[in-house]
Write a structure and sequence with these properties.
Strand content: 25-35%
Shape: globular
CATH architecture of the largest domain: 3-Layer(aba) Sandwich
Number of domains: 2
Largest sheet: 8 strands, antiparallel, barrel
CATH superfamily of the largest domain: DD-peptidase/beta-lactamase superfamily
Length: 452
């Protein structure tokens, strides 16, 4: 294990302006000296030599400052998970397929707003044409491939072929909605990206991404797994719980990649994360293009960019994605304001990597959260109930102290709004200063507590 803790359209232009204004021009510097590797290890203590587990990485301004593996890559042979273990990262693969679409547009071989039938003649005649841009942003209306497989009682096992999957996409007669009027996650569009790449470049998606992204970045342990007989060094198996303990899960059967199918390591992925700071790929304006939000026909943007979700966590802007496919579960979460990247790649179907990523964010950004929540800390009283509550900050979190032994963590929602169990707390201000809060439960109206 490796422990390195020292270390042509108006919507298009509109979306670009949004993406450029979404993130600060200069990232803030912050020290992570307060983070003890023991605290990181404690988050993953449940994963050992009897279980699958996770490989994690923390990148600070493009430098991998911590990486480690917890649990096993292969339970049969007793091989532990390590920083160079190769895992299939499920839907996090989508950002690489989306990057390929943007690269083909840059090369002039793909018009993102052209009727998709121009490039894939097998696409059905829908009432309105769909486009590659809509595939990227999940706004085409195509029905989801994996849901269709389930409805047709076709499993994700060796009896289901690539042709079975493509036939389901080709046979769709109707869309879920008019193109670019809604956003519904669909793996079908990302599977079609591999077909687009071959039809327009004569290269597989694997070859194309290797040429324009992986080789320039030195991501030598990363590839789209479109050769089902290929030997992958340091490959990780995936598992699921059974009555007899962990059972093997992932099977190679569908070689159409794009929606999933990327094998990589934490060490390689850290190079991808660094590219959002210093672009070394062939795609110009990499960060701006990758974080460009989709825009509906009505001019309203949504949170999905190029295989990446743009969001917030505890008041900070985030960029990332999750993945879940046959026991491989993954989470990528980066904070542009601090250029902090958090990667959690797991190989057990009952692990929640997104929850672990948030735990790591809470740990590494503790000082920021403490400073953010400091204005809320203090004592508050309701005279009618003759009741006082203390709000405390502990380890970067805000707590409502109900008694000497009972306290509840406040979960930030937005602005001055928090939740705690079944309670909703909203702070009140006067001249920007906190003057109190209102608390509301499912069976009460708002009750006011004033700050002492």
């Amino acid at each position: 294990m490796n422990d390195m803790h020292q270390n042509r359209s108006l919507p298009f232009l509109f979306a670009l302006l949004i993406s450029l204004s979404a993130f600060p021009a200069f990232a803030q510097q912050i020290s992570y000296d307060h983070v003890d590797s023991k605290d990181v290890h404690a988050i993953f203590m449940d994963y050992d030599e009897t279980t699958g587990g996770c490989v994690i990485g923390i990148a600070d301004h493009g430098e991998l400052i911590f990486s480690n593996g917890y649990g096993m890559a292969n339970l049969e042979y007793g091989i532990p998970l390590e920083s160079d273990s190769r895992l299939m990262i499920a839907s996090i693969s989508k950002q690489f397929a989306a990057a390929a679409m943007l690269m083909m547009e840059q090369e002039g071989v793909l018009d993102l707003d052209e009727n998709l039938q121009t490039y894939i003649p097998e696409i059905p005649d829908f009432d309105e044409p769909i486009t590659a841009r809509q595939l990227i942003h999940h706004t085409s209306g195509l029905r989801d491939l994996f849901s269709l497989l389930h409805l047709k009682d076709l499993g994700l096992d060796p009896t289901t072929t690539t042709e079975d999957a493509l036939e389901l996409i080709r046979n769709q007669q109707r869309l879920n909605f008019r193109p670019n009027t809604n956003h519904v996650y669909s793996n079908s569009g990302y599977v079609l990206m591999s077909v687009l790449t071959e039809n327009l470049t004569g290269m597989t998606l694997r070859e194309y991404t290797d040429k324009h992204f992986f080789k320039p970045l030195g991501m030598n342990a990363t590839h789209f797994h479109d050769d089902l007989e290929m030997i992958v060094p340091k490959r990780t198996d995936s598992y699921r719980p059974t009555d007899n303990g962990p059972g093997r899960f992932y099977r190679d059967n569908i070689d159409r990649v794009g929606a999933r199918g990327l094998f990589t390591t934490i060490e390689d992925f850290a190079l991808w994360d660094a590219n959002f700071i210093d672009n070394r790929t062939n795609l110009d304006q990499f960060t701006e293009r990758m974080t460009e939000k989709g825009v509906h026909n009505n001019g309203r943007s949504h949170s999905y960019a190029a295989g990446l979700r743009i969001g917030t966590y505890r008041g900070l802007e985030t960029v990332g994605h999750g993945g879940n496919y046959m026991g491989f579960r993954s989470s990528y979460m980066r904070f542009p304001e601090y250029e902090l990247g958090i990667m959690v790649f797991c190989n057990m179907s009952d692990i929640n990597p997104a929850a672990h990523a948030r735990q790591l964010a809470d740990l590494y950004l503790m000082e920021f959260f403490e400073e953010t929540f400091s204005e809320f800390a203090g004592r508050y009283r309701n005279e009618g109930f003759a009741r006082e509550y203390d709000l405390l900050i502990e380890d970067g979190d805000l707590y409502l102290k109900k008694s000497s032994r009972d306290k509840e963590r406040l979960i930030w929602q937005n602005g001055d709004l928090f939740s705690a169990g079944g309670w909703t707390l909203e702070f009140t201000r006067e001249d920007e200063s906190i003057t109190g809060f209102t608390v509301e439960t499912s069976r009460t109206g708002k009750i006011t507590f004033n700050r002492l």
